[in-house]
Amino acid sequence: MSRTNKPPKRPWQAIAQEAQTHRDTTIASLSPPLPPIPSPLPPNVLSLPSTFLTPETLKITSLHIESLLPLLLSGTLTATAVTTAYLHRAALSQALTNCLTELLPQRALARATELDAYYATHNRPIGPLHGLPISVKEHIGMAGLRNTAGYVSFWNKIAQEDAHILQILASAGAVFHCRTTIPQTMMHLECSSNLYGVTVNPYNSSLSSGGSSGGEGALLALHGSCLGIGSDVGGSIRSPAANCGVYGLKPTAFRVPTDGWGYMMAGADSVESVLGPMGTSLPALSLFMKTVLDTEPWVTEPALIPLPWREYKIPEDKEKERKLKVGIMWHDGVVQPHPPITRALREMKESLEGAGIEVLDFPCHAHDEAWAILASLYFTDGGREDADAIDSSDEPWRPLSTWILKENPCVKALTVGELIYWLEEREHYRKEYASHWNKTGVDVVLCPVGPGVAPKHDTAKYWGYTSLWNLLDYPGCVFPVSKVDKEVDVKVEKRGFKALSGKDEENWGLYDKDAFHGLPVSLQLVGRRFDDEKVLGIAEYIGKKCGLPFEPFP
Description:
By secondary structure, the chain is an alpha/beta fold. 38% of the residues lie in helices and 13% in strands.
C-alpha cells in the first residue's frame, strides 16, 4: 500500500506567531526607529503621539486632507516627507492600539521617491492624490501580500495583483503605507482575531474600536492615516467610524470597485457588501468618491453601475425651492439608544431647526423584519464555508463568531426554493420601505449608528441601526457629534424604563456611564439608493450650519 507523506499541520499558534512577528519586523525596519513605548499604557492613548513623535511628524500628520493635499499638489511638501511622517505615526498607532497587520515602509517610500522624481521632472503632480498616504484594510488585495480575511487557515493566500480600487488610487498618485486589522470572519462589530489579537479603542482600551474595519477606525483616530479604505456589509465602516470618532461612508453598492478583495461571500449579492472611505474629516470621503468615479471604473469592472459623480445642490427657500427636510429616527422599535445617543439627536434637532432646516420625526418601519431577512441571507450555506475556514486550522472560535454563526437561529443552509423566498422577501421589504420613505417626504434620515457608543469587548450584538441600510442598499455617512458626559448622560432608573424587546433589555444593561465617559458620540445620515452625493453634500452643509462636532476632537 502506498503512503502519502504529508507534512504535519502547523499549530494555529505558530501561524499566529509568524503573523505577529512579520508585522513587528516591518515596523522594526522603520528608520529612524520609534522610541521605546512604556508599559502598561494608560486606557486613553490619544495624547501620547505628542510625546513620542517629532514636531515635524506631528505637524504633517495633524493636517486634515483638505489642508494636506494642496501642499502635496503644489510641491510645498514632498511625498517622501509626508509618507515618512505617516509611517511613523502609523507604527506608533499600532503600539498603542494593535491596529496594523503590517507596515509598508519599503514599498511606500519607493513609491514616494518615484512621485517626487516625477514632480521634479515635470513640475506637476502625477494625479489628484499625488503623495497622499492611504491605509488599507487587510482583506483588500495587494500584490504579493497575504489576504487572510481574519482566518488562520488563509495565512498562505497571496494576492496576485492589486485590487481594482488600489490600481485606481495608485494611478491618482496615492501611497499605501500600511494595512489594518480585521476580525475573524469579518462579521463582527468588533476587531478581534487569533492572528493578531484585539484592536482596542484609543479613547479607552477596555472598549471596542468597532468592526470589521476596526483597525482603520483606531488608526484614523490616532492620525496614523487621514484616509483609509474599509468595507461594509452590516455596519463595518460605520461602526468603527462611530466608535473612534472619525468619519465614514457606506456607499450604495456597485459604485465603488470591489474586484480583487479577499472575502468569503465575494460575488454573492444576497446582501451587497461594499468598499468605502473612512477619514479624519468629512471632505476626505467626497474626495475619495469623486476621485474613484471620475476614472469611470465601470469600463473595466462591468458589475459597477455607470454613474459618474454628481454635485449636489442644497435646496434653499430664497430660490423659491422647498426647504431641506431632515427626518430623525429616535429609535428603531426594537432597541432604544443609550442616553448619550438620544441626547445627541435632541441637540441636533435643536441645532438644525435653529439653522432654518425643516426637521420631521421619521418613524421606524418593521425593523425587526429587516434583521430576519438579513440574517437569513448572510450565510445561505448555513455558515459552512466560514466554519470550515475556522475549524480547518483548529483555531478557537472568537465569541462574536460563535454568536453570529452558531447562536443565530436564522443561519441555516437554504434550498433553492428557500433562497428564492428570502430574496423575494428582500425585494418586498425594499419596496415597502420606499413607500414608507415617500410618505415622509424627507431628503435624508438622521439616526443612531448603534444603540450605544463604543461597547465593551465582545458585547456588540445588535446591528439593526446599520444593517437595515445594507438590506435597503442605502448610503450612510457617519460623523462625530459630541462626547459622553457621565454627569449628564444618566441612565433612566429601572422603574422608568420600558423595554421594547428582549434585545432592548439586554442592551440597556450594557450602559455604563463611567466606562463610556469621554467617548465619541456619533450619528448617521442616510439617503436613498444612489444618493451618495446627496448624503455627503447634506452632511457637509449641516456640519457647517450646526458647527459640528459640538466638542473638539483630535
